[in-house]
Amino acid sequence: MAGLESIYRVDGRVALVTGAARGIGAEIARVLAGLGARVALADRLPLDQWEPDAAALAREARHAALSLDVTRADQCDAAVHDTVRRLGGLDILVNNAGINSRQPAEATDDATLARTLDVNLAGAFRMARAAFPALAKSPHAAIVNLASTGAFIAITNNIPYGVSKAGLAHMTKMLALEWAGRGIRVNAVAPTIIATDMTAAVRADPAYMAAKMKTIPLGKLPATTDVANAVAFLASSAAGMITGQVLAVDGGVLTQ
Ligand code: NAD
Q: Is residue 253 within 6 Å of ligand 1 at its C-beta?
């Protein structure tokens, strides 16, 4: 039984998690660390603005805190380089950094569209490209992208975010195919709404939330831990033959 349990662990592997200062990314870092990984937590926020638990984890000797803006190719390359130098390699990349905005399609300006695609889609691509040489050397290489149920169902007032996540879901499949021969698995998770800073405004709107809850068959919001557990599974050897998949963490939203 020890063998069965150990395939869910990531002992000795190095993970780089983007957008790890708070919310889902911070929880992914905590869960991967708990399963044995050494984790580079990367974010564009200065360390004194991170959630205290994330900052404390990043300061532990076996982990690392990195300054990273995923819209900057030079910073993506540097984050991978620093991870390899400080933690000894790279096995797992989690593309979690993301932004959201809500406005009617006709009121969406070019800057919002461009910025959202730049962070959510191009940012994940830049990080995957930067990580490729290090991942190609790993016997356990895995990328996990943070997509969304909004990649698969149309949500009103959310065009930049929805199309960025739809692009990310498709990029997951394309990279999985292209890098399968290099031993790099590429998967994604697609959560429904989670209680983080990103969703504070809509969660404060009772009418929005009442309508949203009706779409979730299991009748409750997933927790950040539910998302992190799915990411950890996809990153682990338990998912060793899974690539190109988008795993919904949505209480059944996408069954309908
Ligand atoms: P959040 O806003 O609480 O945290 C996002 C983190 O990403 C922040 O720490 C932020 O500083 C960082 N970040 C933003 N832009 C960055 C950049 N250019 N470079 C580096 N870091 C950057 O959001 P969250 O709810 O924790 O979401 C995490 C991921 O999960 C996002 O990709 C989001 O789209 C996705 N997601 C969230 C939900 C939800 O309901 N919260 C649902 C589905 C998918």
A: no
Mean pLDDT of 217-240: 98
- Tell the residue number behind the tokens 């819209």, with chain if given: 71
Model pTM above 0.85: yes
As a whole number of Å, the CA-based R_g of the chain is: 17
Check if the beta carbon of residue 116 is closer than 8 Å to that of residue 161. yes
Q: Assess whether the C-beta atom of 248 lies below 6 angstroms from ligand 1.
A: no
Share of the chain above pLDDT 90, in %: 98
* Residue 68 identity (one-letter amino acid): L
